[in-house]
Write a structure and sequence with these properties.
membrane; Brp/Blh family beta-carotene 15,15'-dioxygenase; transmembrane helix
């Protein structure tokens, strides 16, 4: 019962995923338009706002390291990193590759950091786990993803790399799975990973949900629900454990302000993109926006997980 209570959030999310699977496969297939509406709604309600708590995380980290937190300095540095990564999109291949690497590490760290007993080789575990999750989201659903992206990306589909990935996607996913499985065995043998029956059940259910849901719903479930809500839980655990004296009213005020700013920026970027790419669709615009937001968010969250592991 203690283990179930400790993992309550994860099991609630997995129950939601199973309900989506049941509806999709037994009642009625959810149209692409409806999937996009669900994705956008949850990104706006949970996905983007979970990054708006970065100020709270950074404030806690600064306090622990005996530094003074200045909100204006934090915002200035945050915006500078956003602008820097946005400029990198002038070179799309480099920007997309960097975004993928950052996201792989970030997803791996969010899901696995608190299961590690020590930080030794932690980066490798995060990388292999994140690669496995991305493999499920991208390689399994590659045909659907290809159909949902705009015609402006047709040139990319003809490149040798994309053709190779499309042709051998299951072999690539198999290799990623083997590497990740070997990594888990290594960490388990060296007694550096908390693995029990509950963890295994959660992981199997998560894999099944990501494979069996349609591409947009799978991404929605993992990013907007699983990743975002677990991040929010970890953030408040971080603040609560270290007895942050920040007043709730001030936190809520800043959270709302940053959430609104992030959402305005997201939709502003979308309309700016339509001026330069007339046939850009909402999915591609969302991908570009999230990529810009990910870099500064990863830095703040990484420092948080390092502190959590130390304590």
């Amino acid at each position: 019962m203690v283990l179930l209570k400790k993992n309550r959030v994860e099991f609630i999310l997995l129950l939601v995923g199973c309900c989506l699977l049941f509806f999709q496969h037994s009642i009625a297939q959810i149209s692409n338009e409806t999937q996009m509406m669900i994705l956008m709604a949850l990104v706006c309600i949970v996905g983007v706002p979970h990054g708006a708590l970065d100020f709270l995380v950074e404030e806690q980290t600064q306090m622990e390291t005996k530094q003074v937190f200045y909100i204006k300095k934090f915002v200035a540095k945050y915006l500078f990193r956003l602008a820097t990564f946005a400029c990198i999109w002038v070179f799309p291949v480099i920007a997309f590759s960097l975004f993928m690497l950052i996201s792989i590490f970030h997803f791996g760290e969010t899901d696995m950091a608190l299961l590690l007993k020590t930080k030794k080789h932690g980066a490798w575990l995060y990388a292999t786990y994140g690669s496995f999750i991305f493999g499920l989201l991208l390689l399994v659903h590659l045909p659907q993803i290809k159909a949902n992206l705009p015609a402006t990306m047709n040139d990319m589909y003809q490149t040798a790399v994309f053709v190779f990935v499309e042709q051998f996607r299951y072999y690539i996913l198999g290799l990623i799975t083997i590497i990740f499985s070997a990594t888990l065995v290594y960490f388990y043998i060296n007694n550096n990973l908390i693995i029990n029956g509950i963890q295994i059940i959660k992981f199997v259910l998560l894999i099944g949900i990501l494979i069996m849901l349609p591409s947009l719903l799978a991404f929605t479930f993992y990013f907007a629900l699983w990743h975002s809500i677990l991040s929010i839980r970890n953030i408040f655990s971080y603040v609560t454990v270290h007895n942050n004296s920040t007043k709730l009213k001030a936190v809520v005020k800043k959270f709302i302000l940053f959430s609104v700013a992030a959402l305005v920026g997201m939709f502003g970027l979308y309309y700016a993109l339509t001026m330069f790419m007339p046939d850009v669709n909402l999915l591609l615009a969302l991908l570009l926006t999230l990529s810009v937001l990910t870099l500064p968010h990863l830095e703040v969250m990484h420092k948080m997980y390092v502190r959590l592991q130390k304590n």
